[in-house]
Write a structure and sequence with these properties.
alpha+beta, Outer Surface Protein A, domain 3, four-stranded antiparallel β-sheet, 3 helices
């Protein structure tokens, strides 16, 4: 039985929470976001607290289904916490571009990446996300939606992932890229 899934989630003063048709809506100073409630789970909002309840009884015949919904109970609680944190404080990811002549810029709602290809790569910026460029090689992404932010950062990184010989490419801030030894260095050891 999951223990974290049963704990209450505190609702901050600036946040409004409502439930309608199996969807929980969370609204705060940074924006409004929704989360679908999984099957066999129930969300109760009372006294500035949210509780996720598993509606399946632990009966030996339904043990496998109970374990699955027990895991989903903890997941839903964590997703709700992430959404509350997002609409109050927000999230931020930083990407770094490594390589000679590589740079990025923002024009309107498009992120333009010059990464040594024959053409600049243009990536649309979603409405719920903001992008800032520092020193032409540092991309700061911020949003109230953690899932959207992570997917967008991964999409940008996939344009030119860091390669392992020279380390060129786009990487997350603080990400370690393991470098391989080139052919010349291997032959010189003999």
């Amino acid at each position: 039985m999951g223990r974290l899934g049963k704990k209450f989630v505190e609702i901050p003063d600036k946040v409004k929470v409502s439930i309608k048709d199996g969807v929980i809506f969370i609204e705060g100073p940074k924006g409004k976001i929704a989360q679908r409630i999984f099957d066999n789970l129930q969300v109760v909002v009372q006294d500035k607290k949210i509780q996720v309840i598993n509606t399946i009884q632990e009966i030996p015949r339904f043990r496998r289904l109970f374990r699955k919904t027990d895991a989903l109970q903890g997941l839903l609680r964590t997703l709700i916490i992430n959404k509350i944190k997002g609409v109050t404080a927000g999230y931020e990811k930083i990407l770094e571009i490594h390589g000679v002549g590589f740079k990025a810029e923002v024009k309107g709602r498009k992120l333009i990446l010059n990464l040594g290809f024959t053409h600049p790569v243009e990536v649309d910026i979603p409405e719920a996300l903001t992008a800032q460029i520092e020193k032409n090689t540092v991309i700061k992404l911020s949003s109230y939606d953690k899932e959207l932010l992570g997917n967008y950062a991964a999409k940008i990184r996939d344009v030119f992932p860091p390669e392992s010989y020279k380390g060129k490419g786009i990487r997350y801030a603080g990400e370690y890229v393991r470098h391989k030894v080139g052919k010349a260095a291997v032959g010189a050891q003999k």
